Amino acid sequence: xxxxWLKKEGEAVSAGDALCEIETDKAVVxxxxxxxxxxxxxxxxxxxxxxxxxxxxxxxxxxxxDWKHVEIPKDVGPPPATSKPSVPQPSPExxxxxxxxxxxTPGKLQxxxxxxxxxxxxxxxxxxxxxxxxxxxxxxxxxxxxxxxQLKQMGKxxxxxxxPAPPIAPTAPVPxxxxxxxxxxxxxxxxxxxPGQPNAAGTFTEIPASNIRRVxxxxxxxxxxxxxxAYATADCDLGxxxxxxxxxxxxxxxxxxxxxxxxxxxxxxxxxxxxxxxWDGEGPKQLPFIDISVAVATDxxxxxxxxxxxxxxxxxx
Length: 317
Description:
One of its GO terms (molecular function) is acyltransferase activity. Its cofactor is (R)-lipoate. The protein is an alpha+beta fold. Among the domains are: 2-61, CATH 2.40.50.100; 115-153, Dihydrolipoamide Transferase (Irregular); 254-316, no CATH class. It has five helices and 14 strands. The chain has helices at 115-123, 142-153, 211-226, 239-250, 257-271, and strands spanning 2-5, 12-13, 18-23, 28-32, 37-42, 58-61, 112-113, 139-140, 277-279, 284-286, 292-293, 296-298, 301-303, 306-307. The chain has a three-stranded antiparallel beta sheet, with no helix packed on it. It has a three-stranded antiparallel beta sheet with strand order 2-5-6, with no helix packed on it. Strands 7-8 form a two-stranded parallel ribbon. A hairpin with a 2-residue loop joins strand 12 and strand 13.
């Protein structure tokens, strides 16, 4: 979901600037720009919900470019509104919004291209699949495109020419999709294990669990039932943190807001040792070390790696 756009159309954008706020299943995060330029067009307005993963939400142009007359690629447009129930269309397949990519060739790896990289590749008749994307979140940057141009000039790669699509064999009529399952806002992840066979009527179906999920369930149950809990909330102004983070991005040092929060929590525990304690059933025990566990979602479930001696580590570590 697009919560809020932090930049307006025609506004200059620097690398590391927050473009918009995106709401995921777990939190509201900011989407940062990977390059300098101008926000030419907002394709998906704020307040839009259930945006498909990988959809085009905005267009950037290089500084000095004509941002007022930028055109949205024909194969990419704003996603349909989700507030009203959709009516089945006669077309066999719904259109999928994806990052801009011209002359798509089946079998080639797809990249998210920055505006500058796209212009360079089109000018020199190159394809991003001939190189490697080094930008954040797999973005193919201007520097990646320039490397491809250098390789072409050295004769190590050739121009990319579109491959004609194979003829489509006639097929039987496809049943209507009106009875298909619900449309999900992001790709489904294959389950770790296959559910067991249904039991007799009126009973439950047992779903096999992996070892990691059993350990997670055990640890969470122990934590909730054996450790006294206390909760506190506070509002913090992160303006200075975001400014430092932008400066680090310019120096090619990539850190997240979570890194600052972990560091702040570790330093606070060092300054307030009475809070850095554990409970053993009889009373609190003050700990001589500060180790912080961070929850990380993976395809196979939730894992909690531990950062040892977090107070002594730098932000980048």
